[in-house]
Description:
This protein is an alpha/beta fold and about 230 residues long. It has helices at about 5-10, 30-35, 75-85, 90-105, 125-130, 135-145, 170-175, 185-190, 205-215, and strands at about 40-45, 50, 65-70, 115-120, 155, 180, 195-200, 225-230.
Amino acid sequence: MDFGIIGDILFPPACVACGAGVGNGVICGPCAAGIVRYGTLFCGTCMARLPMNRKICHADAPYLLGAAGPYDDAALAALIHALKFQGIAAAAGPLADILADYVAGRLRLDLAGAIATPLPLSPKRERSRGFNQSALIARRFAATLGLPFEEHLLKRAIHRKPQSETMDILERRENVRGCFAADEAHARKISGANVILVDDVVTSGTTFTEAAKALKAAGAKKIFALAAAKA
Ligand SMILES: [Zn+2]
Ligand SMILES: [Zn+2]
């Protein structure tokens, strides 16, 4: 086994966004600092920005949506791409830090006591990728903010096609309908709890909506859905 190659995968020798040398980091300082950050939450139904973090358009939205920055930010997209498609697990670190800065530094959101949990991958996809990228982000995000973390509040019921950029919103909704269930082993934790769902990218919000439904059905109170980037 060539440990040099393993080392390069854990910590790429160059910034994933610009290629500059970064020692044992993943992204260089200037690229990380230049990532565009949002300063509001979004409506979980129509994705409108919510000034003062209040529901103003759809009071019945199943969750408040948070996204740290836009997916068309090249450096943010490069981190996500490195994590999901290049097997660079260490890219979860800066993504979690960006998300924590957004929540605590910009929104000043008090999430004390809320349980952070990732959107689960299908077991098949998790095996092929080697990890659940959202779980890596959620774990570090929770540790940074001192929040409880539980990796398996939800389970994936069926293996579906991944949500793809070519799908319209109806196809996305159909593709994920009923695909999550609360894990029975954690039923007592979910009942009455506030839950923070974490994913890498939010596009239409349909995946978060299905996950939120499963948590609500299991008795969760407030649900925050947080993504590192919003497409
Ligand atoms: Zn860079
Ligand atoms: Zn709305």
